[in-house]
Amino acid sequence: MRFLRNNKPLVGLGGVVGLAVAAWLAFGFFGVQALFLDQEVDEADPFALETTGTVTAAPETSGDIDAEGSGDGGNESTGTDAAVPTGTEGSNTPAAPTVTVESSGSFIGLDHPAAGDVTISTDGTQRFLRFENFETDNGPDLFVYLVAGAGAEGDPGLFDDDFVNLGPLTGNIGDQNYEVGLDVDLDRYTTVVIWCDRFNSAFGAADLT
Q: Residue 116 contacts by C-beta under 8 Å, 6 or more apart in sequence?
């Protein structure tokens, strides 16, 4: 007891250090604060502005023009031909590329709740994976993976064996887009996984069909 009384400052310092270490582990390493801080996003569909081509008609001229270039009022022609807009005579505005949905699916929760729809679309020059009505828990080091051979309800241990990393999860709530290279084989990489790299944990997954 005399030792404790004589070393109260040391005991108090040890407690402070212990609390500091515990706080660092909780907030610095484990990132528990992310579980309570939602990151909401609302990204537009990257192909939403692509429209089909339209035909531009040549403007109508007022009055009848005779062979001498004079109008109804008998006024002499100025000798200048009526201007015809360039590119309107028998031509169409180039059509926008056709957008094709290559695959789609819906999220299921795994280690955390997850919901929403996912599609992969292309216009032949670009390809995007898009989440809509998406929601899951937030967390540290979350990434979007395209995974081969596992399946959303398969062995989670396979999720980080053969995958394409599309980058960090933009937000745990809301619509968002991720570019997918045209060289990525969608017959091979058929599952989207929200993967926590820090703890090797799958928050949610969706099979693409």
A: 106, 107, 131, 132, 133, 134, 135
CA 102 to chain centre: 15
pLDDT tens string 143-191:
999 999 989 999 999 999 999 999 999 999 999 999 999 999 999 999 9
Angle, CA 143 vertex, CA 142 and CA 147 arms, to 5°: 135
In angstroms, the first-to-last Cα distance of the chain is 71
What is the pairing mode between strands 40-42 and 173-179? parallel
Q: Provide the domain limits for residue 37.
A: 31-45+99-207
> How many structural domains compose the chain?
1
Ranges of beta strands (E only) in 68-155 are 100-106, 108-109, 114-122, 127-136, 142-148
77 domain-assigned: no
Q: What is the pLDDT of residues 1-41, one digit of tens each?
A: 555 556 656 556 665 555 544 444 444 545 565 666 999 99
Query: Does a structural domain hold residue 35?
Result: yes
Flag whether 189 is in a domain: yes
Tokens matching residue 1: 């007891």
Residues 73, 63: Cα–Cα separation, whole Å: 9
Nearest 5°: the CA angle 96, 99, 103 is 170
Global pTM reads: 0.66
For residue 152, count other CB atoms closer than 10 A to its CB.
23
Model confidence at 97, pLDDT cuts 50, 70, 90, reads confident
